[in-house]
Write a structure and sequence with these properties.
Layout: H1 18-22, H2 60-69, H3 76-92
Length: 94
């Protein structure tokens, strides 16, 4: 889960290839990697060095937020309602 786990999840320190992620290698994506932590992750035991790979809009959460910025295309219901409203308006105006 990107927003956090309901129960603690065991992670192991390992090198994750960011170049493979940039090249679109599905097996190396951050969401599937057992070695990736996200903001506000809590380490409850041991310690490990960490590297920040992305901040802001370049993070997974930032990419999702960016995709929500563009308006969704109108649904069939919205198009039909708009057309019906235009027809009613055309009939009401002489």
């Amino acid at each position: 889960m990107l927003t956090g786990e309901a129960v603690p999840v065991e992670k192991h320190a390992a090198h994750v290839s960011t170049q493979a992620q940039r090249d679109g290698d599905e097996a190396a994506t951050a969401l599937q990697s057992p070695h990736v932590l996200y903001v506000d992750s809590s380490v409850v035991s041991e310690s490990a060095p960490m590297r920040v790979d992305a901040t802001g809009a370049r993070t997974e959460l930032g990419r999702m937020a960016g995709s929500l910025q563009s308006p969704a295309p109108p649904t069939e219901c919205e198009r039909g309602t708009r057309l019906f409203g235009m027809m009613l308006m055309a009939l009401a105006l002489p």
